[in-house]
Every structure is written in C-alpha cells, then in structure tokens.
Amino acid sequence: MNGLLIAHSSLLVFSSLRSPLALSTIPLAADTLESDMANCIRCGRQLPPFSFKKICQWCVRHEAAQRGEDDDRQPVITQPWVRRGESSITLTHIIFGANIAVYLAMAIGSGSPIQFPGEIEHRLGANFGPDTLSGQWWRLITYMFLHGGVMHIFFNMWCLWDLGQLCESLYGRWTYAAIYFITGIAGGLASIAWNPLVLSVGASGAIFGLAGALIASFYLGEFSLPRMAISGTLRSLVIFAVFNLFIGQVIGGVDNACHVGGLVSGLALGALIAKLAPQSNAPSRRAIVVGVVALALLAAGLGVRQWRGGPMRLARAFQETRGDEVARLRAVIRQAPNLVQAHFALAQTYLARQQFPEAEAEFKRVIELQPTNIEARFDLGLVYLSQKRVDDAKSAFTQILAQDANSAEGHYGLGLVLADQQDYPAAIEEFKKATSGPRLSGVYYEMGNSCAKLKRYDEAIAAFLKEKEITGEDPDLENALADAYQAKGMMKEAQEARDRAQQLAGQAH
Fold first, then answer.
1. How far apart are CA 142 and CA 128, in angstroms?
2. CATH classification of 4-26+80-308, choosing from 1.20.1540.10, 3.40.50.1000, 3.40.50.2000, 1.10.10.60?
3. Is 0.85 topped by the overall pTM?
4. How far, in Å, CA of 221 to CA of 80, rounded?
5. What was the pLDDT predicted at 148?
6. Which of 156, 165, 347, 481 is least buried, going by the fewest C-beta atoms within 10 A?
7. How far apart (Å, rounded) are the C-alpha atoms in residues 57 and 70?
C-alpha cells in the first residue's frame, strides 16, 4: 500500500461478542450453571472441593459488607453494563464522532472517500518515525483519529462502538478515557519501534488496548454475575484478539506492531486496575495506577527515542535540508552535535572525495563519541594509508584487534599495512585471517595482488575469481586477473579478461 501501514483489523470475530443488553438478561439462578460442579448458589463461583457450603466465601463477605457487618471489605469491581447516572452521550460517542468528522474532512480534502494518499495522512498527523522521534510526539495521539479509507474506518468504528461502550460502562468515563489514550499511545510507540519508516494511522491500537483491558478484568476481576456469563465474554474477547492478530500477520499493510503494543499495554493496565483499584468510588487509587502506567509508558518512549531516534532525526534532517551531501550533513550536525551517524556519514563522504584531513577529523569525532566503533577505526586507518602514514594506520588497525582479536576488519587493515611495506607473505596471512569472518569486499583482491607480487599466480587467479564471485565484476579486478593469466601464459583467458575490463569501463562512463 505504498509504504503505508494501516493499523486496522478485520474484526470478524467481534460480531460474536455479547452485547451489554444480552449479558444483562442472563439469569442468575444456580440452575444455569453446570450441574456436575459444586457452585455457589448466589454467584455461581466454583466452591472448593469437598465443600458442604452452598454459598462461597466471597458472597458471605460481600453480603456482610453490604449489611455493614464486616470491616475487612471485599474489593468489588462494579457490575458491568449498568449506567451510573452519567449523561446519555458517552465518551465512546464522542470519540466515535471525532473519528467520523476527521474522516469526512479527509474525504472532502482529498476528493475521494475510498482511499487517502499517504501525503495527506502525513500532513494531518500520521505516526511516522522520523517526525515523531524528532519531537513531534503529538503524532502519537493524532494518528488514532486518522484512517486510510472507508473500509478502514468502517471496521474500526464497528469495533469501537461495541467494545468502547462495554469498556466505558465497566470502568467509568475517565478511567475508560485513560485506557483508550494510554494504550493507543503504546501502540504508536510499538509501531515506530518496529516500523519506524512507514506511516501508521488508525484507532485499532487503542481498540486492541480496550480488548486487553477487558480480558484482564474479566479474568482477574470479581463480578456479581455467574461465572458462565463472564467466561463466555472473556472467551469471545480472547478469540477476537488472537484471530485479528493472525489476520494482521497474514494480510499485508497491517500494522500488527501497533496492535500488539495496544493489547499488551491494555492487559497490563486492566490487570492493575482489577487487582489494585477495582472500586469506582476510589478515584485516587485509580489515578495512582493510571499514573504509574503513564510513567512506564514515558520511560518506554524515551527508550524508543534512544534506540531509534538518531537515525530517524538524521532522516528527517535530510528531508528538510537542501544542497549537496556535505552541506546537508553539516546541517544535521548543527541540530544534533553528538549524533554519531551524522559524523560517520560526513566522514565517509569526505573519504570518498579524498578530502583526507576533513575525513580524519570526523572519524576521530565518531571514535570520541563511540570508542567501540570498529568501522570508524578501520576507515580512519584507510585515511592514514591514503596519506602514507603507515605507522598511524598500523596503530588504528591494532586497536581494532585489541577490542576483538578475531576482527576481520583488523586483520584486513594489518594486511594492507604489510602489503604497503612489501611484506607480502605476512600480508597474505593477515588477509586469510580476515576471510574467516564476515565477508569484506576487497580482501581477496588484495590477497591476489600480494600473491601476484610473489609470482604465485595460481593462488592469485583463485583469489581474484573468489573476489569476483563475492563482489561482482569490476574493471580493476578484470585487469588484475588478465595480468595473472598472462604471467601464466594463458593468453586467451588474459585477452578475454582485458576485453571484459574495457566493456565494464565503457558501461561505467
């Protein structure tokens, strides 16, 4: 879908969830429960094995608390699906209406209600790593009210209408609002952590958060309803979450990271409320739970910023700045002076332009900021070799091997130093050590050159062919191969290699 991840779900299973009206009509008599289990005649909870009591301890304590006879009161989550004197216009209605209003505005602005282009979604506040992690944190809220098209908003609003009203009637308006926005933000964080370079829009991160909170509450909470009524709804919610996550994995263009982030944060928040603050008439306890979760979410956001923020700020700065690459990188460094990736990119640009003093300064800055950066030390050694500062180059490569004795970069660099000093046998041994690790381009080419200097042409040809297999065809490689063939008296092969080198050079121009 052109790089756009839409945070939506098919929601097919949700139609099996019981509505508040349906659940409120379930009879509470004991004969609605399984006949082969010992259950409480009041609430239907399973009694302990070999119990001769007809009423569970929970009901005994609860009834005593209602009569004012028990000071150690049983925590009770308010029975769901019961209005508590709040306005007939619910928060679910308001959120629903806000989503529809934004969709209509997008449809009018784009001229098409079916599918919206990513440019419009980005401009209106889609969640996008380079922007969000560069300080536009408000996108973690606005993305929840944007949708990719008519089917996207249809499925999400269908789900929000039922799940939202169920969740709001259970928790109350303000707790419900906290769950909705906290889990929506958590879903957005998960999205940019997993998919930082794609746009994400949609309410389903928050919707999965509502599902997670309900699952946790129905599993851990205490309700004055038969267990059968609770377990049926719980089972439907679990099926809803699992099925839609599976569908999101199978269907392309679905931001499952957002779904998982919303679901996990909803499970955590719902569990904490159910166990620590079930009473709706104790707002301070609820506020503490919500506050702790919000602080945990803030810490997670700082962690994502630390992990993904550098490259994302670099990408955003590249989008905003003009001019050649050096000017753009300098602009990035002015905004973020300690951004390692920007200094490293600038150093490599200078190296490619053979501006060796500038490249040296930038590679040293990278090492100052990140002393364990092996790649920067290796490139710094190449800068020294280009300036014929062999001792400095050897020192740089030796420091790499001090960090990691098996480093392919370190052995490759020492091989280059030894070859420059015409110690070809020792250079070949270092190049061989470099080939035992990750494949580095150029190792076999340099090994072939050293072998050719020692007139070990068979080894040279084998090394050149191996380099060709790894990195592909190159004019310099073909010419080196032609020289080795010619030295061996293989004139036909030598001519073919030279012809191929000319063809490649012509293609390059």
1. 11
2. 1.20.1540.10
3. no
4. 11
5. 87
6. 165
7. 13
